[in-house]
C-alpha cells in the first residue's frame, strides 16, 4: 500500500480506490494490430496507462546486418506497412548519403510523387480507423478504403506491388512510369479532391465527432518537443516543423505546398491536420506530374554496393513523422549497423500523459489520433 | 375474418371451451414464429443495407441475393460448441440470455397489429410495455456480471447507467401520448389518432426516438457493447446458442420498439389499407431508421450520453407533458367535452399546429443554450513557425 499522495501506477496501484486493471490487447478490436495497453481505470476514468509492445517484433535492424544494402530495401517495406514508399525512400536516401550516389532528377520527382501518394493513403487509413474507433461502425473506413485502393492501383501500375513496393532503389527508382499513368493519376486526383471535400463536409460538421474530439487530450507544443513527437501530431500542437520545409530533400524545395499547423494540439486538430495534409499532398502530386523532366530514372550502382567506412543518419518526413535511418558501414556489402528512428514508436511517448484523466472511450480515440503503426513500433 | 374462419374450423374438431383456450395460443404461436423469422431476416436486412451505405455489397452467397444468410448464421451458431468460462457464475450465465430474449418477445403481446388483432388486449398495455422491456437491463447486467470478465462488467455497468437514465424520458414521452389519447390501452391509443400523433407530438416523438435508440443499445448509444472500447460489452463471453439469443433479442427488441413507436405516433394500423401489411411497412420504416443511424453515426461518450438524458431530454419531456396537458384541458373546454372523452380531429389539428410551432422554436433555442451551442466550426489557421 502506498501513501495517498503518491500517484497510482500500473505497477503499484493504490487499492484504496479499487481501480480496475484492464488489459487492452494485444488482441483487441481497436489496438491497430497487436498492441497492448495496460490500463488502470477508476470507473470510466483512466488513472494510468502503460503501453506494452513487442508482439510484432521481427528484428528488422538485426536482419539488415545480414543482408546486402539493396536487399534491406525489402525489410523497410514491412516497417510501417501502410506507407512502404516513404520507408523505402528514407532508407535509400541514407545509403545514397553513405555511398555518395547521385540520383537523376526524374527519379527524384518520381520519389516525391510516390511518397506523397503514400501519404494520402496512410492518412486515409489513419482517419478511417480513428473514426472507426469513435464507434462509427466501419462506414467512414470503407469509404476511405475506396480511395486508398485507387492509390494502391496506381502503385501497382508503377511497380507491380500494392503493399510491399520496394520501388526505391539505391540511385533511383526501379521502374519508369508505365504508359497511361498520366491519365490514371489525374483521374484519381480529380476524384480525390471531390472526395476530400465530401469528407470535410461529413466529418468536420458532425456534432458527435466534434464533441468527442474537440479539446480532448491536449498536447502542448513544448511538451511535444520535449517528447520528440514529430509529424502531424507535432504540427497539431502548433509547432511548424516539417522536414520537407525545414530540411528539403529530393525536390521538395521546388514544390509549392503549405504545411497545415494548428494551435490546440487536441484530438480534433490531429485529425484536421491529416485531412489538410492530404490536400497538400494531392497538390504536390499534380505538380510532380506537370514538372516531371525527361531522362533516366536510375543511376547505375553496384547491386552489392560497398559504401566507404563511415556512418550516416538521414531522415525524411514520413507519413507518421520523422523517419530516420542510422547506417554504419564497415566497407562490406552489408551494413554494420542499421538503426531506425521510427516515428510511431517515439510518438508513443506521450500516450500516457494524453490519456490520464480522460475516459476509457477517450483513450481509444487518443491512441487513434496518435496514428501508431505497430509494424513500425516493434520493427 | 381469418380468426373467425380458424375458429369455425377448430370447432369442428374441438369443444368450445378448448377452442377458447386454443385460439390465443394459436395467435401466440403465429406471432412468435413470425417474430423469430423477422429477426433472422432483419440481421440479413441490416447487413445488406449497411453494406450499401458502406460502399460494399454485403452477404450475397447463401440463397438468392443471400437471403438465407441469416438462416445459415443461425445454424452455425446453434451448432457451435457452447462454452462457459470456468470462473463464470454458471446459473446466471445460462439464465441471462433467456431473460434478455423473453421480454423482447413478450412485448408483442399487447401490440395491436390490426383492428382487434392483439394477443392480449390489456387495458394497461403501455404500462406493460414499459415494465416488460425494463427487464432487459437486468438481463444485460446479469450477463455482464456472470461472465466474470472485465469487459463484460464494464458493459454491464454502462448498460445499467444508460437504461436507467433513458427509461425516464422514454416514460415521460409516452405519458404525453397517453394524456392526448386518454387511455393506456394501445388499441384505444391507435383509435384516438385522428391525426397521427407524430404531428401532434413532434417533440414527444423525437424524445421517444432518441430514448428508444438508447434502450436498444444502438448507435450512437451503443456504449454497453462498444466494440472499439470494450470488445462486445456484456456479451463478450457468449458463444453459440446463447449468443444467438442475445443477438436475436436485439433485433426482436428493435422490431418491438418500432412497433410501439408506430402504434403511439404513426396511428398504428390506421388508415386501413390492406390489413396488417400497412402496420408492417411502417414498422419496417422505423427499423430502417435504426439501421441508418448505425450505418452513419459515431458513438457518444458515456458522460455525454447521460448528460443528454438528464439535462436535455428529461426537462424537455417534462415541459412537453405540462404543455400537452394544458392543451388537452383547453380543448376539452373549447369543444365542451366530458373528461376522458376522446378528442375530435379538429382539436388534434389545433394542438398539432401549436406543438409543431413549439418544437421548431425549442429546437432552434436548444442550439443557443450554453454548453449545447453549436461547436465552433471555424477552422484553425496555419501558424507562424515556432521551432
Count of helical stretches of chain B? 15
**Category from helices, strands and their pairing of chain A:** alpha+beta
Report the average pLDDT across residues of chain B.
Answer: 81
Radius of gyration of chain A: 21 Å
Q: Judging from the principal axes of the Cα atoms, what is the shape of chain A?
A: globular
Shape of chain B: globular
% residues in beta strands of chain A: 5-15%
> Hey, which two chains have the biggest interface?
A-B, 49 and 43 residues
Estimated radius of gyration of chain B: 23 Å
Helix content percent band of chain A? 40-55%
Could you say how many structural domains of chain A there are in total?
Answer: 1
Strand content of chain B: under 5%
Strand order of the largest sheet of chain A: 1-2-3
Topology summary:
The complex is a heterodimer of chains A (379) and B (387).
Chain A: E1 20-24, E2 36-42, E3 45-52, H1 60-64, H2 72-77, H3 84-99, H4 105-133, H5 139-159, E4 168-169, E5 172-173, H6 181-204, H7 207-213, H8 221-226, H9 232-236, H10 243-246, H11 267-291, E6 310-318, E7 321-329, E8 337-341, H12 343-347, H13 351-355, H14 360-370, H15 374-378
Antiparallel strand pairs in A: 1-2, 2-3, 4-5, 6-7, 7-8
Helix pairs in contact in A: 3-4, 4-5, 4-11, 4-14, 5-6, 6-11, 11-14
Chain B: H1 2-11, H2 16-53, H3 69-79, H4 90-106, H5 125-133, H6 135-146, H7 150-181, H8 186-192, H9 197-200, H10 202-215, H11 227-230, H12 240-265, H13 276-296, H14 302-334, H15 345-366
Amino acid at each position: 500500500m502506498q501513501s495517498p499522495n503518491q500517484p497510482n501506477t500500473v505497477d503499484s496501484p493504490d487499492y484504496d480506490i479499487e481501480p480496475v486493471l484492464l488489459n487492452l490487447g494485444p488482441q483487441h478490436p481497436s489496438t491497430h494490430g497487436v498492441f497492448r495497453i495496460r490500463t488502470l481505470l477508476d470507473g470510466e476514468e483512466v488513472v494510468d496507462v502503460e503501453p506494452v509492445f513487442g508482439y510484432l517484433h521481427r528484428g528488422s535492424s538485426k536482419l539488415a546486418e545480414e543482408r546486402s544494402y539493396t536487399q534491406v530495401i525489402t525489410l523497410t517495406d514491412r516497417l510501417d506497412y501502410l506507407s512502404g514508399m516513404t520507408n523505402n525512400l528514407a532508407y535509400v536516401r541514407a545509403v545514397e548519403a553513405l555511398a555518395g550516389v547521385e540520383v537523376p532528377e526524374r527519379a527524384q520527382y518520381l520519389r516525391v510523387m510516390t511518397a506523397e501518394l503514400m501519404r494520402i493513403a496512410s492518412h486515409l487509413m489513419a482517419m478511417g480507423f480513428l473514426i472507426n474507433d469513435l464507434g462509427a461502425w466501419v462506414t467512414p473506413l470503407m469509404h476511405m478504403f475506396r480511395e486508398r485502393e485507387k492509390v494502391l492501383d496506381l502503385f501497382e501500375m508503377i511497380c507491380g506491388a500494392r503493399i510491399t513496393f520496394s520501388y526505391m532503389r539505391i540511385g533511383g527508382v526501379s521502374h519508369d512510369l508505365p504508359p497511361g499513368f498520366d491519365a490514371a493519376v489525374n483521374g484519381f486526383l480529380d476524384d480525390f479532391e471531390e472526395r476530400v471535400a465530401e469528407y470535410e463536409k461529413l466529418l468536420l460538421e458532425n456534432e458527435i465527432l466534434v464533441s468527442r474530439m474537440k479539446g480532448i487530450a491536449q498536447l502542448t507544443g513544448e511538451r511535444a518537443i520535449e517528447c520528440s513527437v514529430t509529424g502531424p501530431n507535432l504540427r497539431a500542437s502548433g509547432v511548424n516543423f516539417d522536414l520537407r520545409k525545414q530540411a528539403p530533400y529530393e525536390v521538395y524545395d521546388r514544390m509549392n505546398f503549405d504545411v497545415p499547423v494548428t494551435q490546440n494540439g487536441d484530438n480534433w486538430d490531429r485529425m484536421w491536420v491529416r485531412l489538410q495534409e492530404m490536400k497538400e499532398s494531392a497538390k504536390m502530386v499534380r505538380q510532380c506530374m506537370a514538372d516531371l523532366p525527361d531522362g533516366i530514372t536510375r543511376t547505375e550502382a553496384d547491386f552489392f554496393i560497398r559504401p566507404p567506412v563511415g556512418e550516416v543518419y538521414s531522415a525524411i518526413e514520413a507519413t507518421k513523422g520523422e523517419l530516420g535511418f542510422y547506417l554504419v558501414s564497415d566497407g562490406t556489402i552489408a551494413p554494420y549497423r542499421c538503426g531506425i528512428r521510427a516515428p510511431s514508436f517515439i510518438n508513443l511517448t506521450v500516450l500516457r500523459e494524453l490519456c490520464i484523466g480522460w475516459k476509457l472511450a477517450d483513450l481509444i480515440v487518443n491512441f487513434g489520433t496518435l496514428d501508431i503503426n505497430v509494424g513500425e513500433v516493434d520493427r | 375474418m381469418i380468426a373467425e374462419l380458424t375458429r369455425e374450423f377448430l370447432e369442428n374438431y374441438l369443444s368450445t371451451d378448448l377452442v377458447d383456450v386454443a385460439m390465443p395460443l394459436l395467435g401466440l404461436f403465429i406471432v412468435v414464429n413470425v417474430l423469430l423469422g423477422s429477426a433472422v431476416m432483419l440481421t440479413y436486412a441490416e447487413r445488406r443495407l449497411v453494406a450499401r451505405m458502406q460502399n460494399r455489397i454485403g452477404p450475397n452467397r447463401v440463397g438468392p441475393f443471400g437471403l438465407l444468410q441469416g438462416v445459415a448464421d443461425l445454424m452455425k451458431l446453434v451448432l457451435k460448441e457452447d462454452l462457459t468460462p470456468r470462473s463464470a457464475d454458471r446459473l446466471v450465465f445460462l439464465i441471462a440470455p433467456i431473460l434478455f430474449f423473453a421480454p423482447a418477445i413478450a412485448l408483442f403481446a399487447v401490440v395491436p397489429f390490426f383492428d382487434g388483432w392483439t394477443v392480449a388486449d390489456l387495458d394497461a398495455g403501455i404500462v406493460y410495455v414499459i415494465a416488460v422491456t425494463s427487464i432487459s437491463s437486468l438481463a444485460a447486467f446479469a450477463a455482464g456480471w456472470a461472465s466474470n470478465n472485465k469487459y463484460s462488467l464494464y458493459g454491464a455497468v454502462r448498460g445499467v447507467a444508460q437504461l436507467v437514465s433513458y427509461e425516464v424520458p422514454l416514460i415521460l414521452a409516452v405519458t404525453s401520448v397517453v394524456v392526448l389519447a386518454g387511455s393506456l390501452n394501445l388499441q384505444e391509443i391507435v383509435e384516438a389518432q385522428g391525426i397521427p400523433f407524430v404531428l401532434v407530438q413532434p417533440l414527444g416523438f423525437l424524445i421517444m426516438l432518441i430514448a428508444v435508440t438508447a434502450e436498444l443499445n444502438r448507435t450512437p448509444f451503443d456504449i454497453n457493447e462498444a466494440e472499439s472500447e470494450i470488445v462486445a460489452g456484456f456479451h463478450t463471453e457468449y458463444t453459440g446458442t446463447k449468443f444467438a439469443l442475445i443477438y436475436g433479442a436485439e433485433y426482436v427488441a428493435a422490431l418491438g420498439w418500432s412497433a410501439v413507436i408506430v402504434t403511439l405516433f404513426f396511428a398504428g394500423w390506421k388508415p386501413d389499407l390492406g390489413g396488417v401489411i400497412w402496420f408492417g411497412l411502417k414498422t419496417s420504416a422505423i427499423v430502417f431508421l435504426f439501421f441508418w443511424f448505425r450505418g452513419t453515426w459515431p458513438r457518444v461518450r458515456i458522460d455525454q450520453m447521460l448528460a443528454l438524458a438528464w439535462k436535455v431530454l428529461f426537462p424537455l419531456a417534462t415541459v412537453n407533458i405540462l404543455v400537452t396537458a394544458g392543451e388537452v384541458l383547453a380543448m376539452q373546454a373549447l369543444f365542451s367535452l366530458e373528461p376522458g372523452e376522446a378528442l375530435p380531429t379538429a382539436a388534434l389539428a389545433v394542438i398539432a399546429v401549436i406543438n409543431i410551432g413549439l418544437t421548431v422554436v425549442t429546437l432552434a433555442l436548444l442550439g443557443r443554450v450554453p454548453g449545447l451551442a453549436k461547436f465552433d466550426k471555424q477552422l484553425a489557421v496555419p501558424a507562424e513557425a515556432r521551432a
